[in-house]
Amino acid sequence: MILRPAKKMLLNSGDDGTRFIMLVVVMMSVLSTLAVGGALTLAHLRSTWVDAVAGHITIEIPASDGQGLVRSPDTLHEKATAAYAALSSTPGVTRVDILDRRDVEKLVSPWLGEAVSTNDMPLPVLIGVTLSAPNDEALTQSIRSKVSAIDPPSIVETHQSWLADLRRFSLILLLAAGGMATITIACCIVAVAGAVAARLSEHQNDIDLLHVMGATDAYIGQEFVDSVVRSVGGAAVIGTVLGLIFIKIGAAVAGEIQNAMLPAMAWKMADNLWFLILPALVTLLCYFAARFTVLRSLGTMP
Amino acid sequence: MNNAPVLHVSALTRVYEQAENKLHVLNGVSFTLAAGEMVALMGQSGSGKSTLLQCVGLLDTPTSGTIEITGRPAQSMDDGERTALRRESIGFVYQAHHLLPEFSALENVMLPMMIAGQSRAQAAERAMKMLEAMGLAPRAEHRPARLSGGEQQRVSIARALANRPKLLLADEPTGNLDPDTAEHVYRMLEAIVRKTGVAMLMATHNPDLAARMDRTLRLKGGLIT
After folding, report:
1. Helix axes B120-133, B149-160, angle to 10 degrees
2. CA–CA separation, A181 vs A185, rounded Å?
3. Closest CB from A1, A9, A209 relative to B107
4. Domain limits of chain A?
5. Which residues are bridge partners to B7 per DSSP?
6. Spatial distance between the Cα atoms of A272 and A241, rounded to a whole number of angstroms
7. What is the CATH T-level fold of the domain B35-61+77-224, as seen in this structure?
8. B143 at the A interface (CB within 8 A)?
9. Residue of A1, A2, A3 to mutate for B, most B C-beta atoms under 10 A
């Protein structure tokens, strides 16, 4: 036997209205979980992309000199070797790689098409430099000076412009995902508050009767709110678990795409805390919304 | 009979203000009710019987006057104290049974005790004893919709007495019942009053019923005549 007045009056599990509101909470929790999962994935990808680019400099030794004359392979090799030696001995530089001609051909071939042969085409020499500190301006300037001294037309590309665009773009995506999660949770809260208000109105005679029996507003309110916490909490947990299952399925389906185009998606252990926090947050916010609605409604009853 | 005053009402007025009009429902009602006393409250419809019961039951605030229940002046109490006094000392029986439809008969009787802070087990034990006393033990798990009118009213009487009140307020408790059932319910109420010493104020339109009680208060023009 159960004797929780509000449970039966407000959120009777067999009631259509209650089933509907629980379904809404489950669906909203699924959407919130997907949004949070998306935000975490984006944050991880953003970090991966930025880390991959931020600590790297690409040096291009042009195929032609400053006057438009094509340099010989020997000249390019000589310049590249000198640059390699200078950069390798520079403190703060952890790695220097000269891309061979075949790698450079692979890089330019998508733009030239298969019909065009690059065998006799003058191609620049590209040198990849890895720094120990990604944003060391002094080191970057030192590298510019050394490269310029070896070969004035050479270009030192720090990828800052691309990096700034990447940061801006990923931030917009992050904000969109966060906004979606926030709006979804807000919809959930509004739905629960509306359901509570409707139930209070529907059961006004019963509430009057509880008052007659000596129940205070606080007692009735607490009973209602407790039932909200139990029911909404359960629905939020179910929704979060379902959302995580969808994410897992999505990750499995997208596995090949990740391998081909994207850095590996992997959340940190700490990121999983969000999926514990999410149902608790939904429940807590619904608790406050229900409590506010109940006490305000009871206060206006005669 | 114990003659200690359970209810003392003095110069009670209740005025309802509607826009610029003032409706004087009670105009200085005074009376006393002793423990174990059964008093009928009679008057035409609209004479203020229900308003008086609401005020005495601390469900409505009188415009002026005093109400003392078991010697405790209600007018000086805040809302919480009035609610506590109502919970501890007053039971209500209405013309309509006013049972919660989603609860069983047993749960309906348990409710006031649980609101008063008793454990579920304690409340269930006493509620079952009360239903047994009312001859309703076999119907304890039935919801109100499956009970007859007389059974519903007996459940509501059991609920009203659940917290051992000192004052029982009844508003036409037999008004909706057929004569035989009404007689049965009245006898039950009378037996309870005589046995427990609870004071009962019963609003009724039935002069025969009123004549069987200890005395009758007649309400007319907002005054006891």
Report:
1. 130
2. 6
3. A1
4. 5-51+163-300, 63-153
5. B33, B69
6. 12
7. Rossmann fold (3.40.50)
8. no
9. A3
Q: Which B residues 84-113 touch A at CB under 8 Å? A: 84, 86-88, 92, 98, 100, 102-104, 106-107, 110-112
**Would you call A213 and B107 a contact, using CB atoms and an 8 Å cutoff?**
no
- Judge whether A178 and A32 are in contact, CB under 8 Å: no
Complex ipTM more than 0.90, yes or no: no
Ordered by start, the domain boundaries in chain B are 35-61+77-224
Provide the residue-wise pLDDT of chain B in tens; the chain has 225 residues. Answer: 445 589 999 999 999 988 778 889 999 999 999 999 999 999 998 889 999 999 999 999 999 999 999 999 998 898 889 999 999 999 999 887 688 888 899 999 999 998 888 888 899 999 999 999 888 999 999 999 999 988 999 999 999 999 999 999 999 888 878 888 888 889 989 998 999 999 999 999 999 999 999 999 999 988 888
Cα distance between residue B137 and residue B58, in whole Å: 32
State whether residue B159 sits within 8 Å of chain A by CB. Answer: yes
